[in-house]
What does this fold into?
Amino acid sequence: MQSSNTYLPIGSRRSILKAVASGVALSIVPNGRARATPDSLAIALRETFGEAEIRPGRVHLEISLIAEDGGIVPATVRVDSPMTEADHVTEIHLFSEKNPLPRIAAFTLGSDNGRAQVSTRIRLADSQRVIAIARLNDGSLWSDEAQVEVSLAACGG
Amino acid sequence: MARTFIRVPSEVKRGDSFEVKAMIEHPNHSGYRVDLVGKPIPRHIVTTFTCSYEGREVFRAALHPAIATNPYLTFFVVARDSGTLEMTWTDDRGEVTTQQAAVTVI
It folds into this structure.
């Protein structure tokens, strides 16, 4: 089932399908308020990183490309870094393109971690891009992203 | 206090990086769902997680509503000395849950 971005009132195709699929009557609130746009992602990125250049590379986002249940999608971010005093990752950020809020999580790391790798389980309200961005101690920003197709949307994020 | 589950290796070689797995039982209501009669379920999420190793903070997470129910995190920590890891979860209602785990460095 491919979710659409179109605004649909209560009792929408999506909530009906979800209720049918899950047998549970908890439905998504398909209102305009709870729908982020790529614009809100751009705003969140600017708030967090300013105008600094974000380059693709060094970051590896491991996430299933087809998520059966958008309510629980395992995600791992790994960054190529020696994680020494002199050269380490200071932050790892996860962003979503179409969740109600673009921010998913922000992790603070350092040389005490030894390995720049974090995992969690996220919610995806729709098929969308997920973006991982790492900040290094030299201030540089690196990213990776994945397009995740969600079969059963979460009303999560 | 919410139930928590932590997994760390019982023994680690000094200087090695070991994996910490931490989960807390928490509804983590996103605030975007409605109940059976259509009433919105208020947001109730874990917003902050920290891990200290012998009193020194080594990992921190700022969490938003897009984290799944029963927030689960894994990360790595360098084994310096035998001691205690203290995990702290704080939710948006001000509830604080802490849990400790002992690590033996060999």
Q: What stands out?
A: Chain B is about 0% helix and 55% strand. Strands of chain B lie at 4-7, 11-12, 17-24, 46-53, 56-63, 72-78, 83-91, 96-105.
